[in-house]
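Appendix B, record 7
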Amino acid sequence: MLDALKFFLFVILLLVTIMLNQHVTSKRSAELDLELLWQIQDTKGVYIIPNQTVPSGVYTALEQSMIIGSLLEEYNDVNTSWVGETDWIYRTNLSCLAEDYQYVLLTFHGVDTFASIHLGNQLLGTTENMFLRYRFDVKNLCDGSTHELRLQFRSPVVEARDRALGRKLPIVPECPPLVYHGQCHVNLIRKMQASFAWDWGLSAPSMGIWKPVKLEYYSSALIRDLTVAISESDDVGGERWSVMVGVHLETGLSSARINGILTFKIIGVPLADETEQTLSIANSTDESGELMVEHRLTVHRSSVERWWPNGYGKQALYSLYVRWEDAAVNGVKLRNPDTMISEKVIRIGFRTIQLSQERTADGLMFYFKVNDVPMFAKGSNWIPSSVLPERSYDVNYVKFLLYAARDAHMNMLRVWGGGLYESDHFYRMADELGLLIWHDLMFACSMYPTDKDFLRTVQDEVRQNVRRIQHHPSVAVWATNNENEVALRQNWYKTEANFSTYLAQYVELYVHTILPVVEANDRWRTVLLSSPSNGNQSVKERYVATNPQDPLYGDVHYYNYFLDGWNAAQYRGGRFVSEYGFQSFPAFTSWPEARSYGHKELGQLINHRQHSPLGNTPILTMISYNLPMPSNQTADSYWPELIYLSQLSQAMIVKIETEVYRAHRLDHGTMGALYWQLNDVWIAPSWSSIEYGGTFKLLHVWLRDIFAPEHLVTFINERRLLEVVAVRDTLGTDDELWDVELRIHRYGSFRLVDRRSYKGVRVPPNSIALVDRWDVYGHLAAKGLYPADHLVLAYAYRHQQEPPQQIAENFALLDKLKNIRSDQRVTPEVAINVVSAVCSDRSNLTSVSLEVSVSVPALFVYLQLTPENSTLKQCQFSSNGFLQFQPVRTVQLRCVDPGCRNKIQARDITVRTVNELLVR
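Structure tokens (predicted):
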């Protein structure tokens, strides 16, 4: 009974640890989080900010103390540039007692970026890489006295500038385009590359302690990281999973002899061999105090469920518990035996993943197989959720963005290489939501130095971060950089004159330095050298392919800014399209200045924040190709209308392009579509589908259909035929039968003009089926009908089900909207009726049911809350920017309403349609 009670209490304690979901060492090896009562000041003492908590950054601290306005308001990206060029000091008082602990370490999990660290009068060391964890032995200073802990930061802007001096061969690009309003030489330092500005983001070269600072006390060994490599085997003993666990132990900062036992448990899962539960260790750590121990666990396949990506099955996760106990704990009576015990819990998933690159008649395939199932990758590219690193770990906002990706049927996100190695919470959420991660390492759009010190810190950076992230089943593949291969080959930064030297540096950094470190710390995944890249073909071509954008190999990045993006015929795609997209403006009500600024001032602000060297020209060009442009640039309605049209144009371009890629799964072997980009870091023109703060652009609302697991794709192909393709990503053993109907409508009437039906279309699982390539233009000509006056609405239903069960719907435009003839240009009377509104005090979520009524067909109905509802957050319409060819449509609106203080009424919602622009 006593043993059972002990076991019960042990399980309860373990479950609490798992629920907290932290990489803990518990009270057995103590940790003290140094969060509170820091003082921040500039080195001249002009600005002194007391009582700050960490994680922290100087911009955040200055904003909170009201020394500067918000970095994200007005022109503060330029007005506050002095902050990043100033040296700063962080200080606090620290009193610690070493007692009987063998090791007392002061551990900084993230310092941004260049700092000298003092405790009292002693210099502990310096930092130079924001992605590194730094440890310092402070045992001799933990005598109960109070010492000042001081971090003196050097401006990263100045440091980068100094590192550029005296170089025989410049590391290019030396500076970003002037339109970025950014800083130079970020490629010479190991800091978030986008912090010096990007084409979608502002310059914010912050400094600070952007991750936790902890005092670590222990007397034996500390479990720092757990890595896993999980594979299936069919041994004599039956069908099993093999779990190779890597336990990364630390003993301070120097070599030490350790003797003890490691205990392994997968909670709720019996091991196939009980002798695998423990492993005796008698070994020495290396000169840095580190030792990696490998141990194999085996599990019967029937004992666990597989982990699947979103849309393919459940995301089954299991807790792997590892405990270190020094042999001395049971050998002699100790005063503090718990200091010789360390524990760690991580969550793992049982799945296999393979990046297949088998030979084809014309090249190589490039797609992911998960649990031996080929997967069409649907998703987006992830940039940091904030330009300020300490804010990028905001748990609630990260959760919101990842849920938005999951709810749009995405199954993959690409963590882009100019940002950050994300928080543990990010990867845990990706595991839970089934979002596979294509993970770049943090090198982007640049050449990089290869001097000894740079390569050393890069090795440490990659080793630490791969070990931390590696166990997550959501991580699918590593790529060592973003766009650096193609930049070198295509002479983006004028490298051609010294190509051989830059090539040698490229190979030294990625092939000889980074690749071996990743492979040594993660044997569970493929490592790609770049994106875009030809994959295995690039390796054969000495790591830099002749054409890294070859659509017959690897992945491609495709951007078109001047061909008509609404024309599906231009999109061929490739094996895997890992970047593509188009810009739009954030909603009119999202610009905080829009309420007080006049028309001219808003235009100036938008132009200031447009960092693309092409300016707004591509947006305006694409609108003018297809839509009626607002003609009066001085009218108050100009910017609201232009913003609406930009979002409609962006949504149409990404919709058409994505659907072509999905339809080309068999013809061209296209197996991935990751548009650029999911999120933003400020309110500015960009490629995002979600504005900074959480407002969905039209694109993101449309993605629920664009990425739907069962979808009907319709577009006009290169032969001027209406191509109709049934897409089914769901699994199963049998084909499904769909009934497809195409309805031709005239723009000015609800009345149906003509229809075409297809009964019993056979749609295989996890594949596509061609429904038809129909000469719709010839059909209309035979009836004497003008394509410009008509569109096709397409519907798919379950075969022979009564009442009919709709699977999907879509549309195809037969001509440019601006070409609709005058007799079909009608203006609908649009009425909004609030049917019901309910707010939950518990969740602060307001749910509103709306009826949208129109007198005649309405084109791309755009609903938006008025600025007076600014206290409502993250408001999303279930449908928006829709074609309404029925008199009444129901739309749901959900908002976060703190305190449930708002009552949404019909007058709080504005409506726009393309019709009103057509009739002018």
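Remarks on this record: Residues 724 and 772 are 5 Å apart (CA to CA). Confidence is low (pLDDT under 50) at residues 13-27.
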